[in-house]
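Let us practice reading a record.
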Amino acid sequence: MHATLREIRRTPEGIIKAQKAFEDFIANHDFLLPREVVYTGCGSSHFLSQPLAMATTRLGGRGVALPCSELLYAKENYPIGKPELLVAISRSGETTEAIRALESLDVPKFGITAYESTLSRKADYSLIVPAHEESVVMTHSFPAFYFAYLQLLLHSFGKETHDAGLVSELTGEVLKSEGYIRELVDGFDFRNVIFLGSGILYPVALEAMLKMKEMALFWSEAYPTFEVRHGFKSIADKGTLVVLLVERPFDWHEKLTKEFQSQGAKVLTVGRKDTGADYFIEVPELAPPGNLVLYTSVIQLLAYYKAVERGLNPDSPRFLSKVVKW
């Protein structure tokens, strides 16, 4: 069995590790997250920084997310404002750009990582979530990092935190769709994938796009759900799988599903309710922004099984390394 698959299946375990990391942090630090926060990371860590920024805004603060390279070399083009904290994310804690980004703003620094590392040592505060992975691609550490920090965010803003045991159980429920996803990939030889998500699920669509490219070396796109109608939908035909990530569908989602089907594409809806799609995976009830952790396993498994179907080893994607250094 590939390490990547084992690690995706460890998502429920990662949630429990995330909860312990959160509890350890608040037990050892007299620190609450401020309201104005800039988030940064590279690759998957940048796509993770985006929903963290959105969660901050949704809960009453103001979050801004930039890739590390943009924060280093082009931050004057972004509405950073006057942040009170810079949060840098790196699974290894050794990514060159993430470490250098710590010096880009003259504010307190916070690191999110899986290890005691250069990042954790250089930051003023660090949330170390030991969701360790052998494989190159980031899998169960993505929802683990998100959940640990979200708990800290809720705690800092005086809001009720999630029941980690329940969330872990719900992620396990989602993993039961693995066989269905494998059958989908085996039964439909799609040539490209379009991932769609709105709000906090848009960064999940971006991460899904990256996973499909990393693991399966396969062409994929990602758009805000209804923005796809404005020109981008022209690439969809009988060889296209459209993955619609949605919490609670309404009539526009159903219209969009029919529109893609009329072009010959097949649609996979992932959410609380079907949209009349060709394929459907139900996601359990969990209030946003916590619900993000329930979607990640689906998109990771889809990329994994597409890689296997193409005869590739998802543990060792070509041209990629686990830690990116300059």
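A brief commentary: The chain has two domains: 3-162, 176-309.
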